[in-house]
Design a protein that fits this description.
single chain; alpha+beta; Rossmann fold; Dna Ligase, domain 1; D-amino Acid Aminotransferase, Chain A, domain 1; 3 domains; 4-stranded antiparallel β-sheet; 12 helices; 17 strands
Length: about 350
C-alpha cells in the first residue's frame, strides 16, 4: 500500500521481505530474504536512496546496517528499538506525560508474584518484544499461576501490566515531516477480538475538541522526542475523560487503512511525502468511515462490492488469524453506514 501510494508521486520501490509471495512484488522489485540477511541487506542498500519499514519486528540491527551502508532510513533505528521493547515504551510514555497502566518488569516467577501483590490479579503478562495481534501475552488469573505463566512466555524478558477496565480503545495517527511539521488524523475507535483488530471507525464517535487535542499533544511529544519522520500510531485506552497509552507503532497502522478512501490524504501517501521531504497532505476525514479487517478467506468478495465497500485483498496465503485484506465503507449518514458494515460483517469469516 505504500508502493501504491508512492508510484503516482514518481517514486520507485525495492522491497525486502522473507515471504516469497509478499504482495509488494506487484508494485516493485522484491528481494526475498530474512531481514537480517547480510548479503540481501547489501543488495537492498545498493538499490535504495532511502529506506523505511512497515513492520515493527524488523531488527533494529538491520536498520543500523543499512545506515552504515550509506542508506538513509526513516523513521530510523531508535523509534524501532523503543517500539520493540514494551518496557522502554511504557517508560517513554511516562516520561513524556502520557499515563499508562501500572506495570513491572518480570524476569522470574518471584518477580511476577511480587508484582501481582501490587498490581492485583488478573493481570496481563507480556513478552517485552516480538508480540503483535495478541501474540506473546497471556492473562495471569492468580498468583499461583506465576511459574507456569513465566515459563510459557520464555522465563525472562517480560513485563506485567495491570488489567484495565477501559471504556474503549482508540488510536491516534500522526505524521511528522523532515522540517518538523506535524499533521494528525481524527481519533479512531477500534474493536479487537482475541487480540486482533477487527473494526475501526473514523472519526471516532463522541470525541470532543478537548479529547482530540489531548491525544494530539501526546503523539506530538513522542514525535519530537524521537526526532521522528513519517507516520506514527499510538494505541490508547479511554477511561472516562482519561487516556492511557498502550503501545506505539512506528509505521503506517492497520487502524489507519480507512484513510485510503476516507481522508483527504491517506496515511500511506503522507508517509511517503514525509520521508521524501514533500509537503504533508491534509488529514481531514471526508465523512464517516468504517474499516473491517478480513480475517480468513472471503467466499464472495463481490458481495462486499455490491454493498458499496472499497475492497483491498492482499494476495496473502491464508492461515488462522491472518489478515488477508480489508474493506472500507464511507458514508455521510452514520446509521446507513452501520447497516452496511453489519451486513458486510455477516459475509466475512471472523
Amino acid at each position: 500500500m505504500l508502493g501504491l501510494a508512492g508510484l503516482p508521486l514518481g517514486e520507485r520501490f525495492t522491497f525486502l521481505d522473507p515471504d516469497e509471495s509478499a504482495p509488494a512484488a506487484a508494485v516493485g522489485r522484491l528481494i526475498q530474504a530474512a531481514y537480517d540477511d547480510r548479503v540481501a541487506l547489501a543488495e537492498f542498500a545498493s538499490a535504495c536512496d532511502l529506506a523505511t519499514f512497515e513492520f515493527e519486528q524488523v531488527p533494529a540491527a538491520a536498520v543500523e546496517r543499512l545506515v552504515e551502508a550509506g542508506v538513509e532510513v526513516r523513521p530510523g533505528a531508535r523509534p524501532l528499538a523503543v517500539a520493540q521493547d514494551r518496557l522502554e515504551e511504557k517508560r517513554l510514555f511516562e516520561r513524556l506525560g502520557l499515563a499508562v497502566p501500572r506495570f513491572a518488569p518480570v524476569d522470574s516467577a518471584a518477580d511476577l508474584e511480587a508484582a501481582l501483590t501490587d498490581l492485583g490479579a488478573p493481570a496481563i503478562l507480556k513478552t517485552r518484544g516480538g508480540g503483535y495481534d495478541g501474540k506473546g501475552q497471556l492473562q495471569v488469573k492468580r498468583g499461583g499461576d506465576s511459574a507456569a505463566a513465566v515459563a510459557e512466555l520464555g522465563g525472562a524478558g517480560l513485563i506485567v501490566e495491570e488489567r484495565v477496565s477501559f471504556d474503549r480503545e482508540l488510536s491516534v495517527i500522526a505524521v511528522r515531516a523532515r522540517d518538523g511539521e506535524v499533521v494528525v488524523y481524527p481519533l479512531i475507535e477500534n474493536t479487537h477480538r482475541a487480540g486482533i483488530l477487527r473494526l475501526s471507525r473514523a472519526p471516532a464517535p463522541f470525541v470532543d475538541v478537548d479529547l482530540q487535542r489531548r491525544a494530539e499533544a501526546h503523539v506530538r511529544r513522542v514525535l519530537e522526542e524521537l526526532d521522528y519522520v513519517g507516520v506514527l500510531a499510538i494505541e490508547l485506552f479511554q477511561l472516562g475523560r482519561d487516556l492511557l497509552g498502550n503501545e506505539m507503532a512506528p509505521r503506517v497502522h492497520n487502524s489507519g487503512h480507512w484513510t485510503i478512501e476516507g481522508a483527504e490524504t491517506s496515511q500511506f501517501e503522507n508517509h511517503v511525502r514525509a520521508i521524501t521531504g514533500r509537503p504533508l497532505g491534509r488529514t481531514d476525514a471526508r465523512g464517516e468511515s468504517m474499516m473491517l479487517n478480513l480475517i480468513g478467506e472471503v467466499s464472495d468478495p463481490n458481495a462486499l462490492l455490491r454493498l458499496g465497500g472499497h475492497l483491498h485483498l492482499y494476495g496473502k496465503s491464508p492461515r488462522p488469524g491472518r489478515k488477508l485484506g480489508h474493506v472500507t465503507f464511507t458514508d455521510t449518514d452514520p446509521a446507513r453506514l452501520e447497516d452496511r458494515v453489519a451486513e458486510a460483517a455477516r459475509l466475512v469469516a471472523q
